Amino acid sequence: MIGPTGPTWPTSPRDPLGRPPERVAPRGRPVGLLPEDGRARRRAVTTRSGVAVAVVALVLVLAGVALARPDLVVVAAPLVLAAAMRARGWRPDPTPPRTEAVGQPEPGRHVTAVTLAAGERGAVRVRAVVPGYQEARALAVPGEVEVAIESARTGVLPPLRVDWAEVTPDGAQESEPGTVTAPALVVEPVAAPTAALPVPAHLVGLTGTHRSRRRGEGEDLHDIAPFAPGDRLRSVDWRVTARRGTTDPRLGTRLWVRRRYADAEAVAVVVLDSRDDVGPDVRTWAGGTAVLPTQATSLDVARQAAASYARAYVEAGDRVAFTDLAARGLPVPPGAGRRHLRRVVQAISTSAPLGEPAPLVRAPRVTSGALVVVVSTFLDDDAAAAARGWAQQGHPVVAVDVLPDLALHRLSPEELLAARVVLVQRDARLADLRGSGVELRRWLP
Q1: pLDDT confidence bin for 9, thresholds 50/70/90
Q2: Handedness of CA 203, 204, 207, 208 (dihedral sign)
Q3: Where is the composition biased (Basic and acidic residues) (predicted)?
């Protein structure tokens, strides 16, 4: 276990210096490893205990000869014989360990199975190292050892490193140490149910689940009108025709049809502000102390909120686009379907702050008539200014606040004063957004 109590298995986080390493993948899918030198033959070296045994045997032999004590030589003989046989017969197995992630790719408790190989009579000395966790050491027989890591984080996590060396049963010899590193993996956020989804006034497309303002082949009744060229016979309302029709043979029978509203789809643009990654402890905001891996940061909450809104709109039959305020790459264009949702969730999972956040010069462009969901902590003016600008352009805007509940009781008077100043400025920013017609929502994980 990588934990604060010592080298036991499974693992738990250490005092706040980093993040956990594992992405959980479906069982049976091995995680690719980067062995230090493949299956190269490793040289056997003598350990300290082996040297100590050899020294004791030599001292006994010399004492027996010097003191004419054959019993001492008899006692030393098995030690000398065992050392000679071990030097000639033991060869370490060159197979490096391999890992296999177990479970589901979601934050929580991640378990990784490490498969160890050794020679006929060997055991394996293992050390598991994860940034932000206390290292774990174990002497294990060949087979499978599970490493459990507790984490509330999402996104790209640091890798698990396994240092290993094969040892003889008596511990007198071991192979040269080797290192196997699992690649950094991605933990995707778990989407949660959302509140009622707002819909923009301007709908696009010819199909969907929302009623548009134009006539078409939807379900909701628009009006009843006389039959005209282009109307379909199946839209004829025979009851109204019988009631309003005429029996004048010169005019014939006038048909009446039921005209309906067309169904259309909405376009939602999910905007994630990944420039902030702050935890519930305000003392960690300055960067001197890292957030505990078991505590979700604002970016973890933002990823969950963004993924939840994206999934909700896709499941409603709408098109979803994604953009990151801190990203320098291209945004994900609008699309629908499960495959597109996987693409959006992957982009959300890999969004992360890149160094010092640069000021936002211009808000990203969004699709005409789209609804914009801005997910941010709103600790600065950039995300709020972008949301206000989209609202002024006529877009329906929903601002989702993802700042976690803060632990202010541990702060010094000076730190508490500084935190209150920041929070007052943030409250004024949110009030200004509400006055601009932006809908405010609070996301609680």
Answers
A1: very low
A2: negative
A3: 16-25
